[in-house]
Design a protein that fits this description.
Blueprint (H helix, E strand, L loop, with lengths): L6 E4 L2 H4 L4 H9 L5 E5 L6 H15 L5 E5 L2 H7 L3 E4 L6 H5 L8 E6 L2 H10 L3 E4 L17 H7 L5 E4 L4 H9 L4 E4 L1 H4 L4 H16 L1
Parallel strand pairs: 1-2, 1-8, 2-3, 3-4, 4-5, 5-6, 6-7, 7-8
Helix pairs in contact: 2-3, 2-10, 3-4, 8-10
Length: 210
């Protein structure tokens, strides 16, 4: 089983449609085990998600980056991904763990408040994605919850990923508040150099692990 990544690079419908998606995904994956690519297409079909997940698995294999699938444990298992990010309306963690082959998978729960984080921790989630921490372009108008929820969620036990408006400076603030890592969309996929963006968001974690 791969180590738990420190950066989760979420794909969305806009990113999935990029002509140079493969180039960008390969650049992010090149950072290695500190990075996880999350296949996610909210407006897409199951076939679209399956194709995306399989593509990310192929690109991530040489540098040993992790690939997760949003919401669909069956697609994660079918494509050789390494886990799933479960939302409120997805299967409970205990049901996913019973699926054949899911024993070594990362089962990560995405939550938006402390009450949901407490429930997910009690269910045995391997990690939690918590946010929105800062207001982001992906969810304009949604107020950020602030670092207080990271501090509180970190006391529950599972590693915490902060999501929402993440920048390199904010990633450091999140780690100081107790986060294991961060999750991002625009902060890692947009711009001219996805590799350097991923490096910047994992800089503190890689330094600590040396």
């Amino acid at each position: 089983m791969r180590p738990l990544p420190r950066l989760l690079a979420f794909v969305d419908d806009r990113v999935a449609a990029l002509e140079d998606l493969g180039v960008r995904a390969a650049a992010i994956a090149a950072v290695g085990p500190a990075v996880g690519l999350v296949a996610r297409v909210p407006a897409g079909s199951a076939d679209t998600l399956t194709s995306l997940a399989a593509r990310l698995v192929a690109l991530a294999a040489p540098p040993m980056a992790t690939v997760l699938v949003s919401g669909r444990a069956d697609i994660a298992l079918a494509t050789g991904a390494h886990g799933v990010v479960l939302r409120d309306h997805d299967l409970p963690i205990h049901e996913v763990r019973r699926l054949p082959g899911a024993g070594d998978y990362f089962l990560i729960r995405s939550v938006h408040d402390l009450a949901s984080a407490e429930i997910a921790a009690g269910e045995g989630a391997d990690a939690l994605v918590v946010g929105t921490i800062w207001e982001s372009e992906t969810h304009p108008g949604r107020p950020g919850a602030g670092l207080g929820i990271i501090e509180a969620a970190a006391r529950l036990g599972p590693p915490i990923f902060a999501i929402g408006g993440v920048t390199p400076d904010r990633a450091r603030e999140a780690r100081e508040a107790g986060a294991w890592g961060v999750a991002a969309i625009r902060g890692v996929w947009d711009g001219g150099d996805c590799y350097q963006a991923a490096l910047a968001l994992t800089e503190g974690e890689r330094r600590e692990e040396r």
